[in-house]
Amino acid sequence: MALEHLMANSPVAESARPPAIALPADGSPLGAVSVNTGTCTLCLACVGACPAGALQDNADERPELRFIEKNCVQCGLCAQTCPEGAIKLEPRLLLSPERKQPKVLNAAQPYVCVRCGKPFGTLQAIEAMLSRLSGHAMFQGAAAERLKMCADCRVIDIYRGTNELGIEDVPDGKNLRGLR
Ligand code: SF4
Ligand code: SF4
After folding, report:
1. Distance of alpha carbon 24 from its chain centroid, rounded?
2. CATH class of 2-8+19-107
3. pTM value?
């Protein structure tokens, strides 16, 4: 509020001001963050780590990482949390009104569940997971196909699978399909 007041009452015209003032890296209470879109997988771990509501996801179905600069206190928790090391802090005071507006730092195409059509995760993240697990013995056939399903459909598919142990098979131990 103090910064807003000072900016609104500055004798220097807005057009004559620099767009931003760089601040010292050590202990700066204000600033931006930048994200390497080549390595960011949009896991959104940084959104959960941010204590100031500066990093946010998109409430709609399109996966997005958004940033509101006026909220950022440069604590660095997002950079420490990011598993890809994709976040860099930029200590500064942004003087333009954009400091209050959400900015999209990264966005991706959603991945659509092959069973129900509901979007979940990102195309990039799911395809990377499918590629990494393609040679794993536990994720072949139907199990590999389940990786392409949302969380709800995975459970339904396991329960309905003809080669899987159903909950009704367990109590008396007399009908354990495939184990006898
Ligand atoms: S910046 Fe890092 S923590 Fe944040 S969404 Fe991207 S990969 Fe995940
Ligand atoms: S530096 Fe701190 S306040 Fe700023 S975006 Fe990262 S976690 Fe949020």
Report:
1. 28
2. alpha beta
3. 0.74
